[in-house]
Amino acid sequence: MDDPSVQRTRISALFDRLAPVYDQGPIPWFTPIADRLVDLLSPAPGATALDVGAGRGAATFPLARAVGETGHVVAADISAAMIRLLTDSLQAAGTANVRTLVGEATPRTLPAGTFDLVAASLVLFFDPDPAGTLRDWLALLRPGGRIGISTFGAQDVAWRHAEAEILRYAPTVADPRTSGVAGPFATPESLGLLFGEAGATEVTIYEEPLEVALPDAAAWRDWTMTLGMRQIWDAVPPDESTAVVDRVGALLEADRGADGLLHLTQQVRYTIARKP
Q1: What is the C-alpha separation between 248 and 256, in angstroms, rounded?
Q2: Each residue of 211-248: pLDDT tens digit?
Q3: What are the backbone angles phi and psi of residue 75, rounded to the nearest 5°?
């Protein structure tokens, strides 16, 4: 097993590569998940919020709107490319109540006990030490502050089988498609245990479906190549890529609707908790 710092460097490099296309396509994905997470956290005007793994700003912008001009958001990401593009977007939108940060969000990089809210949308399951990282995030909260994360539950059967077809080429990558099937992200119960052992209280977990509609397997591949799943596709030998897409397409046909589109459903888990 690699040292956690080596794994984080590898993850940072992956998202540097993804940054130009990340969350920029026509498929509503990161935005509805982040919007729902922020909604469940219920930021108050004037609050101080931290967006960890901010990416291109799916949660940053709704947090900034919710806390208003009297509030403040710190948007942190270990990918410098993501932060450069997010900073450009914030400036273009005239969003003045956000500060961006390249690096990890820990008591070593930010003042402990100073945030009212911590949000991390689709982030923690990439981390090589989720328990330690969650403790760090809780340490950044004021007493009584709230933390919220989003992670994945199950996909529909066709989607799960399609992913299994490519996962066999990369069974050990640091991706929710591998970490989510075992360990702390496998079930609501294991997530609750993770939060409880980190010291959080009032842990509440919501599980809600999110559907995407795509024309075919090639479109599914193109879309997932803009996500963290890019590292899984990269493990497929180039001379096998066409055959893999064909096999994936046959599996996804079970989700084709009367409108001619593939309707794929992912369960999303939202875990909300409080620091004592």
Answers
A1: 13
A2: 999 999 999 999 999 988 888 899 999 999 999 999 99
A3: -110, 115
The torsion of the CA quartet 186, 189, 195, 197, rounded to 10 degrees, works out to -110
Measure the CA–CA gap between 126 and 217, rounded to whole angstroms.
Answer: 25
Round to whole Å and give the CA distance between 107 and 113.
9
Direct distance between the N- and C-terminal alpha carbons of the chain, in angstroms, rounded to an integer: 34
Burial tier of 255 (Cβ tally within 10 Å: 0-12, 13-18, 19+): buried
- 218-246 core/surface letters (b: 16 or more CB in 10 A; e: else): ebbbebbebbbbbbbbeebeeeeeeebbe
Burial of 161 (0-12, 13-18, 19+ CB in 10 A): middle
Residues 155 and 161: their CA atoms lie apart, in Å, by 9
pLDDT for the residue numbered 7 = 83
Structure token pair of residue 200: 């959080």
Q: Which residue has the tokens 């009584």?
A: 144
Scored b (16 or more CB within 10 A) or e, 86-117 reads: bbeebeeeebebbebbbebbbeeebeeeebbb
